[in-house]
Amino acid sequence: MSDLVPADTTEDVRMRGAGVSRQVAVLPVGSFEQHGPYLPLATDTLVACAVAREIAGAYPVHLLPPVTISCSHEHAAWPGTVSISAVTLHAVVRDIAASLRRSGVDALVVVNGHGGNYVLGNVVQEASARGERMALFPAPEDWEAARQRAGVVTSLLTDMHAGEIEMSVLLHAHPEMLRPGYETSDFVADDRRHLLTLGMSGYTDSGVIGRPSLGSAEKGKELLASLADSFGTYFSMMTCDA
Q: What sign does the dihedral 88-94-100-105 (CA atoms) show?
């Protein structure tokens, strides 16, 4: 678990910043919510951190520690789930961005690991309208490109929660965090039009929506590699002078 928190010293950050025209910070945002009986509550944080670490290994970015609790209200029916309000998450990210700018880091990319953090899109839209440099990553298109490259069988619609993608990333990055049972926990519920009203418990008894049995460590490795490649466009956008 030590790799969830960057080990940089202040001198590391100073030296990295001296070698780039504009510093870019990367903030993983996860959640603390149920992921069925076999994945930990911290799954989304683990995924966001794995993506952010992959990015930091390929680009000279300032990697930040994760936000570990976010907007998981749709999972409230399961023990262990903890949420903060969308207003609070909005304020946290905005405050982090403001603090970074005061220290000379004027670009922030938020790596979101939880689909229910809808407010992060608003944070980025509002920041961009103010002339600040901020982006939200990965976009659905980035996940789709990664899914195809990794040979993930399940569609993004079907692979909603604790499914093939999340299983694959954790099998690659944190196999020690897994419990038995994912091999027989597949469950599909593609029509979720009332999710915001009913929550996850309106669609699944186990908390799983997807096909975790299809996950593999090799798919996880390829998913992360593809996302790191996709990040190149974001890095160029954040560092360009135009």
A: positive
